[in-house]
Amino acid sequence: MRTKGATGRLKALVAWWQQTRIARTLQRYGARYGGLMASGMALTTMLSLTAVLTVAITVFMAVLGGNAQLKASFLNALDTALPGILKTDSKSTGLLDPNSLVQSNASSITGVIALLVAAWSAVTLVGNLAKSIQSMFGLVALPGNAVMRIVRNALGAAAMGICLVASSGLSIVVNIFRDWITRALGISPGVGRIGLIVSGLVISAVADAAMLVLLVRAVAGVRVPRKDLWWGVVLFAIGSGLLRQLGTTAVGAVDDALLASATAIITLILWINLLVRVLLYVCAWMANPPQGVPVNDPEAVHFRERPNFVTMSSPDTLEWPHNAVTGEVQPVAVEKVSQDQDPLPL
């Protein structure tokens, strides 16, 4: 009796857990292959990173690169966003020299082609990220043609760069007016330094929040209820802030130049992977999906038949319930015939 009672309580606990939002979030993340998409995005980002940085730094240098303080702040912001990737005035162990990424011949035909190829890599990267976000919300198709999707992805990539520049500009303003604000308010230098650190964290959190809203709403085209969107903004700001701090700490802890380079590569791959995972987990949380229906009966999805998927090679499979966009077979309830009953005549 005690065993049955314990088993019943365990089943009740499992049933309760499966109904919770956290469990439904994890289920959606796993059902839509979140881990696989995060790993793919990390590899894609690493392959496109030089191209993306070339476009970002070239455009920035052409527009605002004349201001030395703004330039230093922008490069530091990039180094914070991508730990260990750039060499800066305060750190010479980065992997890439920012000056080598500037297209000095951008006005020539070769330079224009190089910038267009790099820009296309950035747009493609943002498009793949948008598809991953849509998958977490269960969106398999959005209206619109390919040209409009490319335009939306390009605008999203540009807006993300503007957010980064704006974040750098706010950091500069805080640094410039720090002493003036400290004197005006009569704050001690120690408290002022703490205030500077806090303000930097707030600026980073605001930039992360703007990035999330931009990616989800504008680029991916997902209309999230405001309450869930606010939850997502808070969770993503906290998660990305912690990852950024951990990544910077890991790279800064290595003094040797050779080891620092290797650590930067490993840390960057891992950091991008984890950041995309955080983003997709947050999207699955905002989706607040219903509990998934387990498929325990092979007959419910025609698993034992040949073929066991929808294909034009077997027209009969086209009559199975399936998703018209992706072709995924939809589970259906199968009524079992009792052994005591004769099967219905054909």
Automatic annotation (TrEMBL):
UniProt-listed InterPro entries: Virul_fac_BrkB
Segments passing through the bilayer: 36-64, 109-130, 150-174, 194-216, 228-246, 258-280
Record keywords, A-Z: Cell membrane, Membrane, Transmembrane, Transmembrane helix
Main subcellular location of this protein, as a coarse class: membrane
Protein's membrane topology: Multi-pass membrane protein
Subcellular location as annotated: Cell membrane
Protein name (Swiss-Prot/TrEMBL): YihY/virulence factor BrkB family protein
Organism from which the protein derives: Acidipropionibacterium acidipropionici
Source organism phylogeny: Bacteria, Bacillati, Actinomycetota, Actinomycetes, Propionibacteriales
